[in-house]
Amino acid sequence: MVVIMKAKSSEEDIEHVAEKIRKMGLKPHISRGIERTVIGAIGDESLLNIEQLEAIRAVDKVIPVMKPYKLVSREFRPENTIIQIGNVSVGGDKVAVIAGPCSVESREQLMATAREVKKAGATLLRGGAFKPRTSPYSFQGLGEEGLKLLAEARDATGLPIVTEVMEPGQVALVARYADVLQIGARNMQNYPLLKAVGKIHKPVLLKRGLSATLQELLMSAEYIMSEGNHHVILCERGIRTFCEFSRNTLDLNIVPAAKKETHLPIFCDPSHGTGKYDLVCPMAKAAVACGADGLIIEVHNNPEEASSDGDQSLTPKNFAKLMHDLEPVAKAVGRRL
Amino acid sequence: MVVIMKAKSSEEDIEHVAEKIRKMGLKPHISRGIERTVIGAIGDESLLNIEQLEAIRAVDKVIPVMKPYKLVSREFRPENTIIQIGNVSVGGDKVAVIAGPCSVESREQLMATAREVKKAGATLLRGGAFKPRTSPYSFQGLGEEGLKLLAEARDATGLPIVTEVMEPGQVALVARYADVLQIGARNMQNYPLLKAVGKIHKPVLLKRGLSATLQELLMSAEYIMSEGNHHVILCERGIRTFCEFSRNTLDLNIVPAAKKETHLPIFCDPSHGTGKYDLVCPMAKAAVACGADGLIIEVHNNPEEASSDGDQSLTPKNFAKLMHDLEPVAKAVGRRL
Amino acid sequence: MVVIMKAKSSEEDIEHVAEKIRKMGLKPHISRGIERTVIGAIGDESLLNIEQLEAIRAVDKVIPVMKPYKLVSREFRPENTIIQIGNVSVGGDKVAVIAGPCSVESREQLMATAREVKKAGATLLRGGAFKPRTSPYSFQGLGEEGLKLLAEARDATGLPIVTEVMEPGQVALVARYADVLQIGARNMQNYPLLKAVGKIHKPVLLKRGLSATLQELLMSAEYIMSEGNHHVILCERGIRTFCEFSRNTLDLNIVPAAKKETHLPIFCDPSHGTGKYDLVCPMAKAAVACGADGLIIEVHNNPEEASSDGDQSLTPKNFAKLMHDLEPVAKAVGRRL
Amino acid sequence: MVVIMKAKSSEEDIEHVAEKIRKMGLKPHISRGIERTVIGAIGDESLLNIEQLEAIRAVDKVIPVMKPYKLVSREFRPENTIIQIGNVSVGGDKVAVIAGPCSVESREQLMATAREVKKAGATLLRGGAFKPRTSPYSFQGLGEEGLKLLAEARDATGLPIVTEVMEPGQVALVARYADVLQIGARNMQNYPLLKAVGKIHKPVLLKRGLSATLQELLMSAEYIMSEGNHHVILCERGIRTFCEFSRNTLDLNIVPAAKKETHLPIFCDPSHGTGKYDLVCPMAKAAVACGADGLIIEVHNNPEEASSDGDQSLTPKNFAKLMHDLEPVAKAVGRRL
Prior knowledge:
Four copies of one chain form a homotetramer.
Chain A: E1 2-5, H1 11-23, E2 27-32, E3 37-42, H2 50-54, E4 59-63, E5 83-85, E6 88-90, E7 96-100, H3 107-120, E8 124-126, H4 144-157, E9 161-164, H5 171-177, E10 180-183, H6 191-198, E11 204-207, H7 214-226, E12 232-236, H8 254-261, E13 266-268, H9 270-274, H10 277-289, E14 294-298, H11 316-332
Parallel strand pairs in A: 7-8, 7-14, 8-9, 9-10, 10-11, 11-12, 12-13, 13-14
Antiparallel strand pairs in A: 1-3, 1-4, 2-3, 5-6
Helix pairs in contact in A: 3-4, 3-11, 6-7, 10-11
């Protein structure tokens, strides 16, 4: 860690910071520049309380040298984490494709969509039973009934199922049915929920918050892993910007950036990342081209009747075409579908 | 609601939308322009499923005419909501000032700070017992022990207490001690938590999320109110932008904008909204000048020893000066402290 | 255009708006809803002054139905614009690659880099002679001397040259040497400059501003085209967001979105879009995968000695590898390098 | 300056950086931590080429310790700069108020508005003669004719005039008429224009770009000052964010932040900063409360007939009320109107 003192700090100020560093168990290393003094702290940075150093009024800024995360980092585990979900491997050569409706609405809707996405080559089935909706007056999902339908669809198609969990008290119930538990973007920093899914033994798909940094995303993964569950899949789903032509801005820069920092797999969700069905296919290809380990695609057998997100849902026919078009892109970057 | 069709939509497309609107129970009203057709829907807009209309491929966009919120709106309740907390009235002439440490750390720290802020004129005491921290390795708060200390500080000073609740399962516990329950920025769209605090009878301080729109903030308040708890205080605490000179960007535009839309009181938190102790005072004055009903100010008896947020905490001396300087500003806009 | 009146507008207010629309030469079409009145304007929307309608205090909002741009739009020209630059075609099957150093620094540097990028398969050469630098104390470019060196490099390699022009008074000079004139991101809304390059007969590469919307980018292209120069290439180069892991956020959503709206070619600049040399290759592939018509890549024969942007510059060796890896991606989406 | 090396850098890497620092004329100071090595550079930081150090692949990041600006900084000039414009002093006790229409449209419009704002207490008159408009088809201003009308209005009212200049070739002409030259937000980084206004002897009002940082704003002021013109007034006019309830987000945090960094006066423009006439008054008060040295307010004698920005323009009556309401706020913070 490096402390940059304000210009014109006194010897007393400098010694005060040095003493504080010593008390925290590290060794201060003082560089007196012409205009500013810089103090390095040599030792185990995890012992430092950075906020306390920042609070010293003579300190201009504190620059951490160590990463605040451990278990998620490439240093901790240099090789890629590969997660096994039924007979699907995530994080290896194969690009996984999670497909299905935004919400589970009925047996007919789910079964029809599930069969279609299976036929087109999807590797996992998604569908929301508990839905985080902006309005209390919108459809909130079928709840456990939805989970049961998902399990039925898994039995019928063999596709493992991915579904969202919204609160700590729901984790046990959702884990009883789901193969992968999804933490939605709005809950990326719902720490009690992260701790709760950290205690189970099923993979977690952790979506990036609308205005989360990479470091915050990794810290949220660290929360899960620090409770014992190391099966975390990261997911970029679009950030909020001023852009008017898409619902969100799919930030693909994060894919190669995450690959440098962490061993965890990272997926992309071009459905939420664009909000427009006709941008989904090009952005799905882009995601695979820059190294995404998987995709999540909203597919509805009849988007106009979808109870949510119809505007960004592909029809089964569009989805089949996407799968067909994705294959050569995956191959071009040394992967396969 | 107004549906704008894509250019070159066919008569069939137009009729399809019209029929859909009829099925939802409204009357379509078609305006054929030179290049585009626009279809209005006359009737009770709450019957419409906007997402289903957007999902129609021939539709360019759908523009809601009605607000999606009801209970929070000025139309529903034209006069300002005034909330009584002990002997403090919030939302009226008097500007409320909530002050105290970021975290409750010890009896000594809390009592010392509580007495100082009381003396300087604060109207409520804040302090975190359950702390949402970015890192699982940071201090997570004293938990119930912290709540007990807060209750003790209330007994000693007479100041009602405000503290954060992080999950539905904690609501009953926190409500046993607190006078006002705070929902933090990261939980603004934690819907199970919003529903849970909607079922109790204590005021809720709802902080705006880091990238939440005004409409989303109001919809979150609507969640709480729709469960029966009408005592909601909104709070602006800074949004995330590219700005490098402050931790967040305190968005004061939202204060007068919210006043137009809703009858609920709105507070500002210049401590989180700037992240720098020396920007807190000017921004506190600005907040009062543009109409904020209250402030939340982090105060610590020894910021350098604070376990969190020391860099943005005022000393008791700074806080006393702030209260002194605020008074004429409040008066200048027809309010008082 | 659709005018949404405020709730409780009077008959007088409605008639006032209707009269205003009539005076502008269109026909008002009034839909009285239960809570709001909506007024459509039938006729040639370009006659309307939207700002004047918005300024009417009884108007809640005005929603334009027509696009504000003409010459750039797909409606105006349904087929893709193909621009010929020497023997290079831009906007067709072939993905163009502009490569070269951020700044022209010396004959040796430019020639060495130019030969390398030519050998690796670049189709155009870039290099800055007039440099927009944040600091007045930074290297501002070699000026005309740099343009001469670029012309020399073109003679030596056969690559057409792309270079930035910063002010109207420089256009004639730069056009004497350059094959393509670049308008930098900071000048996207420098209207006198746009008009000036609109009067010449050389292609213009128009970079998107740091916080420009798609509509604003297209309006800036419209400025150039409305002066007579229809050879405009759009370029996404990253927007400014809160993201900390890359210098900018490369917004690839804009590529397929622009393809829907306009017939103009669109390029991507992953060097500025990421700011990190090791993110350039994955993002270049992503750009091609989602439909970009070309790329701009900063290459320097010795990044550590570059007078600007070394951190995001590829070495010639990295660039050769990029060209090699891009080829199958281009093929996978039906293009070629 | 502090260089943080990547983890596992070799001795050779470290020596390479140290040698580079020596060659630039400074002394390296190496701190070997447990996981990382940090190298300080002792000496005159202005000799360093930071980009070249960043380009070294073994370097993780480079943290400048010195500010990149000189003439604008508080260190260079500790006392506030006070700028004399006719008999108006800017930057002292008195809060200046620039008022007038967005565009000069006609003699009648300008004279009527000028007389009203003078009567209400404005200290300077604004009006655009050269207008930067998003669309090439919008009204572009009256040009020199507008400048003549402004001069006439000055003669009639005694108010000094502020008007925008859009390109270097216009500076001499505009300076012939105007008392203060305005650089618009879109031109904040139009460096040839900054240099051109740096060479004249009239005050410059420099508006912050839509997504400019404080440092970038100060660097643009430095461009002007480095050419010899030290009479620069900074102006916050709203940044672009995701917020939907105002046209821009007026970032008042920058006012006290700028006051720490620079001796230059800073104004606020709540008209552009909100885009809504009914948010202008509260935000004008907030700006004064947090320390703004002046305001710019759009006033039009008939907003519904304004050729631009009518929606954010005050009527003369609203403006008179604003001036009346501002007075006690200014007094509350030790200023006067």
